Amino acid sequence: MANEYSEYQTTPGYIIKPQQGIYEISATQKATLGTRIEFNDGRVFYYAKAGSSNLSAGKLVMSEGVAQVNKSVSAAVSVGEYSVTVATSSAITTAQEGFLQVNDSDGEGLQYKIKTCAANSTTSTYTDFTLYDPVSKALTTNSQVTVIYNPFKNLVVTGTTKIGKVVGVPPVDVTADYYFWCQTWGLANILCDGTPAADTLVTLGSVAGSFGALYVATGSAGVTNVPIGRTYGTVGVDTEYKPVWLSLIR
User: Fold this and answer.
1) Span 23-56, pLDDT tens digits
2) Which of 17, 151, 178, 200 is the most exposed place for a label (fewest CB within 10 A)?
3) Where are the domains of the chain?
4) What are phi and psi of 5, to 5 degrees?
5) How many Å apart are CA 60 and CA 49, to the nearest integer?
6) The domain at 66-148 falls in which architecture?
């Protein structure tokens, strides 16, 4: 399948050919999660990984969100150290490339990217985190942290319950656990719920993976009327895939 390599760029004036085209999926990772590409027509894509279920072209997807919140650091961590053990309610083993945020007490306000995470060898409910960067302010057993999954890892189709952030839309069908380029900005073709007016703001629809009119109550508890883009040049048609100018992640 032909790929739009000629348009791909990360910085104006510098053209780089990706190992995986935007209409390809891969069982093996070929770029860092969150790698960004932009086309000359305004479309933006980020490298992502599907969760344990298949994804469909043109259906909106979202991240897993937060793993656990307000968890205590189990032992003091000095400035310059890379390892942090946290008293989690259960061991967290899938937060690699995510973030460890210090939300209270010593070190609060700081954020670190997670390199690895694994169950503690002596206390199985605890989690050992290795960070990409050293701790810049000492942590104590008073410190509380929040563990956040990588926003482009294990994406799922949007539904009536919001899990994490709405990220974008796959340009192709994606097999579960495969890697793909997720469109986050620019002209996209997305499943429509209802009949939103032309050139108006839209939000998540009540149908999984869809968009709908912004000021119409859609779905059940958990769906937030936050704009994800704007209908593009035409009225929405229920159950059809219609043009939307996405404006999620630039």
Assistant:
1) 999 999 999 999 999 999 999 999 999 999 999 9
2) 17
3) 5-62+154-247, 66-148
4) -60, -35
5) 14
6) Beta Barrel (2.40)
